[in-house]
């Protein structure tokens, strides 16, 4: 079955350009010109990935992203004319999986889409394999934190902690080898499944958001530690 993608952009020319390139790749395309229409489509269609513009009238892309993340882990590629580092960081911390600046090369957008869908596929395959293993082999316990790889769930003293797929995978990676220091390059290549490139702040942004959530939900307890100039680790 063809993957179903949703393009959300109030500029019909940009939406049509993206649609042409993605149709050539065999994807089934839905389009929305505003945030409310996008949320309605997501509610009623099995969307595999969302390409989401930030600057839209009414409900903007950041608000749409937050609404999606309340109930879904659908991959989100955010696109925007805003090219500042803080704009990208804001988008990623809102829950987007990737961020692309306008104007962009349509072939790069296609490559980003394929990468996100490929990562989702690998996660699905890993989950299927884990369903065949004894429970103790895919559940980690760090202090009072329980991390279940099969269900992608995290809880602290039986209270659930809501994480995005990338945040969960970063946490599981660190928790699977307590005491080991992982560099940003290690984390990116092991979690994103792509080659690390210079000036890539994706790990920093997602790590910051992950730590913020854990500290809040764990009553101020600090689980992830920074080894300055080296990377990050979790102590057993």
What does this structure look like?
- The protein is α/β, with parallel strands linked by helices and about 240 residues long.
- Helix 1 crosses helix 5, helix 2 (about 35-45) runs parallel beside helix 3 (about 60-70) and helix 6 (about 165-175) crosses helix 8 (about 200-215).
- The chain is built from 8 helices and 11 strands.
- The chain has helices at about 10-25, 35-45, 60-70, 85-95, 105-130, 165-175, 185-190, 200-215, and strands at about 5-10, 30, 50-55, 75-80, 100, 140, 145-150, 155, 160, 225, 230-235.
- It has 2 domains: about 5-125, Rossmann fold (3-Layer(aba) Sandwich); about 135-235, Winged helix-like DNA-binding domain superfamily/Winged helix DNA-binding domain (Arc Repressor Mutant, subunit A).
- The model has no long low-confidence stretch (mean pLDDT about 85).
Keywords:
236 residues, alpha/beta, Rossmann fold, Arc Repressor Mutant, subunit A, 2 domains, 5-stranded parallel sheet, 4-stranded antiparallel sheet, 44% helix, phosphoprotein, DNA-binding, two-component regulatory system, Sig_transdc_resp-reg_receiver
Written as H for each helix and E for each strand, in order along the chain, the element string is EHEHEHEHEHEEEEHHHEE
N-to-C span: 44 Å
Q: Kindly report the name of the CATH homologous superfamily of the largest domain.
A: Response regulator
Q: Report the total helices.
A: 8
Major beta-sheet overview = 5 strands, parallel
Strand runs, count: 11
- CATH class division of the largest domain: Alpha Beta
Mean pLDDT: 87
Low-confidence stretches: none
| CATH fold name of the largest domain | Rossmann fold
Radius of gyration, rounded? 18 Å
Strand order across the largest sheet: 2-1-3-4-5
- How many domains? The number is 2
What's the architecture of the largest domain, going by CATH?
3-Layer(aba) Sandwich
SS-derived structural category: alpha/beta
* Shape category: globular
In percent, how helical is the residue content? 40-55%
Please report which band the strand proportion falls in: under 5%, 5-15%, 15-25%, 25-35%, 35-45% or over 45%.
15-25%
């Amino acid at each position: 079955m063809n993957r179903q993608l949703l393009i959300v952009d109030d500029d019909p020319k940009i939406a049509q350009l993206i649609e042409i390139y993605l149709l050539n790749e065999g994807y089934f395309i839905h389009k929305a010109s505003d945030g409310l229409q996008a949320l309605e489509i997501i509610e009623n269609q099995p969307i595999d990935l969302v390409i989401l513009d930030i600057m839209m009238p009414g409900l903007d892309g950041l608000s749409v992203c937050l609404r999606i993340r309340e109930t879904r882990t659908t991959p989100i590629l955010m696109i925007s004319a805003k090219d500042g580092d803080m704009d990208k960081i804001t988008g990623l911390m809102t829950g987007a999986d990737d961020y692309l600046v306008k104007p962009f090369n349509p072939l790069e957008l296609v490559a980003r889409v394929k990468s996100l869908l490929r990562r989702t596929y690998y996660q699905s395959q890993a989950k299927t394999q884990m369903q065949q293993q004894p429970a103790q082999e895919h559940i980690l316990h760090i202090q009072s934190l329980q991390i279940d790889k099969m269900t992608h769930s995290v809880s602290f003293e039986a209270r659930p902690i809501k994480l995005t797929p990338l945040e969960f995978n970063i946490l599981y990676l660190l928790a699977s080898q307590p005491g080991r220091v992982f560099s940003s390059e290690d984390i990116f290549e092991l979690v994103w499944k792509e080659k690390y490139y210079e000036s890539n702040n994706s790990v920093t942004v997602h790590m910051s958001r992950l730590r913020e959530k854990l500290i809040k939900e764990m009553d101020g307890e600090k689980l992830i530690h920074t080894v300055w100039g080296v990377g990050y680790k979790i102590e057993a």
